[in-house]
Amino acid sequence: MTALSHDSVDPERALKYAIQHHVSERVQIVEGVVEPLASGWGQEAFADAIRHQLRDRVRELGCITGAGDLDLPGSSNWFIPDVAVVPRELAREGEALLPEQTLLIVEVTSETTGDTDRLVKPRRYAEYGAPLYLLIDRRDATCTLFAEPGPPGYARTAGPLPFGAPIDLPEPFGLRLDTSAF
Question: Is the pLDDT higher at 46 or at 17?
Fold first, then answer.
């Protein structure tokens, strides 16, 4: 049996493998730091409200909503969004998707992940081609929709809008989200 040299181990791949296969709790990697996900019922209520409003349109588009793994290859990032809309045919057991394969990513801030959702994720999701990123900021009681991704960031932003103001999701959704229940 041949021993592997330290030089032959890809640290990004090893870290991502470890969190997928050897951690008993759900975690994500943010800029190389393993971050536990502690979603509470309050946070889940926001995510559920979004899923409920998207449900019919998501089915019409042949998609599903979920909170599966998103890989950002070439970086030390592995995100698990609160809600992602992805084409049904791409959702396979044990496989992470790329942000560019989503139609919409929604993050609901918590006390522990708020700064990540506000600062890191808009930049990284834009860099990796996520077409729409909706940030629901519970601390500031606002929603912000980011669109038109590119390497320097999102070219178009709607918000921050106060809870209660509607959010217009562009095509392929073409619907208005009601945030009055937030």
Answer: 46
The predicted-structure confidence for 56-92, as pLDDT tens digits, reads as follows: 999 999 999 998 889 999 998 889 999 999 999 988 7
**Residue 59, CA atoms < 13 Å, CB-side half-sphere:** 5
Give the Cα separation of 66 and 133 in Å (integer). 14
Across-strand partners of 34?
A: 29
State the Rg of the chain over Cα.
17
pLDDT of residue 34: 79
136, 135, 132: which is closest to 101 by C-alpha? 132
Burial bucket for residue 122 (CB in 10 Å: 0-12, 13-18, 19+): buried
- Domains of the chain listed by start with CATH number: 39-66+79-177 (3.90.1570)
Structure tokens at 67: 């909170």
pTM value? 0.86
What does each C-alpha distance from 98 to 74, 77, 81, 129, 181 come to in angstroms? 12, 11, 12, 8, 31
Residue range 94-104: mean pLDDT, rounded: 91
C-alpha dist (Å) from residue 33 to 30, 103, 104, 130, 164: 5, 26, 24, 22, 34
Phi, psi of 18 (to 5 degrees): -60, -45
